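Q: Structure tokens for this one, please.
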Amino acid sequence: MRSQLAFLFLSVIFSNKKIYTPMTQNSQSTDRHVDIAVIGAGIAGISLAAFLSPHARVLLVEQEGQPGYHATGRSAAIYAPSYGPPAIRALTRASRAFFQSPPQGFSPYPLVTPRSVCFIARSDQLSSADALMNELGDVSPLRRLAPAEMRELAPLLRPNYAALALCDDSTADIDVAALLQGFLMQSKGHGARLGTHQRVVGMERQGEGWRLHMAQGEPVHAAVVVNAAGAWADEVGAMAGAERIGLLPKRRSAAIVQAPPGFDVRGMAAVIDVDEQFYVKPDAGNLLISPANEDVQQPCDVQPEELDIALGLDRAMRAFDLDVKRIQAKWAGLRSFVADKTPVVGWSDKAPNFFWLAGQGGYGIQSSPALSELAAAQILGREIPSHILQEGLDLNALRVQRLAVSA
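A: Here is the predicted structure, written as tokens:
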């Protein structure tokens, strides 16, 4: 990954290269009538638009001034098939082929760069390591490493800190900027349009479709509305009279620090505490450190808390031979979850022609190719692609209706 602050990279791209025409009050009325309006231009909305746009007129509606501004652009994304709940793991496995061999012309850069991931366990965390292995079962890509083997992949790990590690060699760093730009270019190539600074303030039924009222500019008329609004998804659902899914945006903070003098981080594995109390991963020659916190937060342009950063650094320095003197950068992002931490994908029971694509949590980027292809098939009334079903995905685990039953 060229930069952990992908949203800054994207800001430069989209401010210097005009690849879309922002919607204004002077737009022609035909520009405001579409088949599908996708609310939210993070990774969920943009990847979905890429799969929908060859078959329908699609408009991406984004409240910020650029795509990927919130959770997507602030992700320290790793492709990790062993990370997340069962449905996410299946979707991540189903996304592997796309990451390794994207469509021709999708990106001039590789989307993924191999990087092992090790889940480390202290002697008091061995039961957590066993539980993770048991949960993954026969599809587990993890191998157990003794302390000496751990230090080959993570040389900075302090002796005697961890009793064992579970290592996944099928993992990789994801170039978030390249992925997001590729999906956006693919969408644009098929006629999809992106409107920024377009905040939806109300919705009403209009015949079989929807009329979306904007904070600025003329309304948008759409046959179908897709709710890919990230942390704001429950608010958007309420405007449409849809069911609430109990979405909780949770703050996660991270910081970039220098690696020890003379230490080359390129071959180092990403290291995650088995109870997810912190993680450390190489990033553009430096180290990215996070306390892996999940603090409930109202939807906003979230900023890091000093206590979060201090906690992450303390935990990392206990585990690794590090002496952090200066923080090079710090930030926070919102990862939005429902109760079972599994995405909500499907048609609303209460709001006709209103489709949910929300609750991806911290797994939205690693699962985005398969998740968006799945959602597009459902919206277009097509069969679910076989390469997704063959990964053992339980479609019922994604349905909106499961939340109403468990409420």
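A few notes: Residues 6-74+176-245+341-406 form a domain with the FAD/NAD(P)-binding domain fold (CATH 3.50.50.60). The longest strand covers residues 327-337.
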